[in-house]
Structures are given as structure tokens and as C-alpha cells.
Amino acid sequence: MLDSDYTQRFLFDDTDVRGEWVGLERSYVEVLAKHPYPEPVAQLLGELLAAAALLVGTLKFDGLLVLQARSAGAVPLLMVECSSEREVRGIARYHEEQLTPGATLAELMPEGVLAMTIDPANGQRYQGIVALDGIDLADSLSNYFASSEQLPTCFWLNADGRRACGLLLQQLPADRIRDGEAREASWQHLRTLADTLTAEELLGLNTETLLHRLYHEEQVRLFDPRPIRFHCSCSRERSAKALISLGQHDAEQLLGEQGGSVTIDCQFCNQKYRFDAADVTQLFAGAGIEGPSGTRH
């Protein structure tokens, strides 16, 4: 059983492959506590949370990684954010009347697309998009890397509403094995062993036990775990900036339409930020977000 939320990196010393394992429990439960998601939606969201945490471990940047899946089906939106500080949050949209027990990814998210956005604190924003055409989210993410010019990367993901776990393998540039045929054979061997993982093993074993079970004949170097936590980046200040972006005329019109106060809801954590007429006046007077009325979230 998992004791905490963390990712843990590992390397195969005799070949050019690295890996990452993630287990989410508290952070996953906190995401689900914000919205009463049905089982198939909670499962998909958990898998995407695990995927984002795994991907952040492969990137060297300060900023935000966003995974967003959209479709024309029962689940029109899955969205997960994971910062370089390993703070995660996520949200899903669904049509409950269209959900069916045991539905596949293709049935839940037909005509789906998956977008991965890297938004660094400094530097250029990057986005890649691929069709959501795998048998599951792990397969679709693996296809994303197969169709790009990035390093070959494979995912194994599972979530059950209580825990969300994942395994990633990534082929590194040729160093220890230079021969192309031998290099491919080594990569396929490690992938084939990972394919034997059951959902119960992925969800129930810690990193060391899982790697020993899969790769006890390989030289595996395991690095220190890195913690992950749920954190929503919403704030009264951000909400105030969103209100200012409307312009004073539209903001005051909105005040009138909503009975003298505007409430901005965070879709991720359900936090509410209320601004009354005095607050709005101060915002556009440049006096800051601390309105005189004392109304706060």
C-alpha cells in the first residue's frame, strides 16, 4: 500500500533507458473531493493526474505542464495541471446520462484530442496535439511520443478512485548501447516486461517492490522519491485581475446584473471570491484587491 504521494526516478545502468514511477493518494482524493465524479470519470482523471506527474519528472523547466483532453462524447473535457514544484490539480466535465458501465476510452471520448502544453516561467510556450486514438490514456500518450520527434516514451496508468499510479519508460540518446539493433531489442525487452504489470500490482506495490518484480535480472538504480501534493493556484488577486480584464464598464454592468456583487468561482477547487461595488471601484481606482467592504472568499 502507498504511504504518501511521490514520484521516483530510476535508471537501467546497462542500457539507455530511464523510468519514473508515481503514486498519488492524498492529492488524488483531494481532487475528487472537490467534485462528485462518477467512477469512469474519476478513473480517467486519476490516470491523467498520474501522467502529468510522470511527465514533469522528465522535463527540466520551471513552470507549468498542462494536459488537456477534449472530445465530443460523454466526457468532453479532462484537464490536469502539474507545476515544476510538483503541485497538481485537475478537473473533468461529463454528461452523466451518457455514461455507461465498462465504457472504453473511445466510447467515453469519441473524436478526442489530447493537448500537452509546457508553459515555462521564462521562455516560449510549447503545445503539442495528438488524436486520442489509443485503447486507453496510457496508449494515447505513448502514441503522442511515437508520433513526435521526441524520445520514445511509454506509459502504464491505473486509477480506482482511491489511488492513481503510473509507470513511465523513456529511451535515452545512444550512449551505453551504440548498435541500433541491440538498442531496439533492449528497449522492447524492458517494455515487454512492463506490459506484464497488472492493475493490482501497479496500484498496490511501492516502487522498489514493483521494480524488483519486473526487473530483478536488470541493474536498476533507484533515486530518492520526490513528493507531490494537491495545490490550487487560484487566489483573490487572480480573480481581481480577471475582473479588471473585463474593463470597468463591463464589470459595473455585471455588478448590476448580479444584484450588486460579482462572485468568481474557481472550477478546480470550488473556491468563491466575492467582489461588491466598493471592491470594484477600488480595483479600477488602482487601490488594489483589498476592498473596504471586508467581503472575502
Layout of SSEs?
Elements: E1 6-12, E2 17-24, H1 26-33, H2 39-56, E3 63-70, E4 77-83, E5 87-93, H3 105-108, E6 113-120, E7 126-131, H4 137-147, E8 153-159, E9 164-171, H5 180-194, H6 199-204, H7 207-215, E10 220-222, E11 226-227, E12 229-230, H8 236-246, H9 248-257, E13 261-265, E14 272-276, H10 277-284
Parallel strand pairs: 5-12
Antiparallel strand pairs: 1-2, 1-10, 1-11, 2-9, 3-4, 3-6, 4-5, 6-7, 8-9, 13-14
Radius of gyration: 22 Å
Please give the alpha-carbon distance between the first and last residues.
Answer: 37 Å
Helical element count?
Answer: 10
Residue share in β-strands = 25-35%
Helix content: 25-40%
- Mean pLDDT over all positions: 88
Q: Element order, helices and strands?
A: EEHHEEEHEEHEEHHHEEEHHEEH
Uncertain parts = 291-297
Question: What kind of oligomer do you see?
Answer: single chain
Largest sheet at a glance? 6 strands, antiparallel
| Derived structural class | alpha+beta
- Quantity of strands, as a count: 14
Shape: elongated
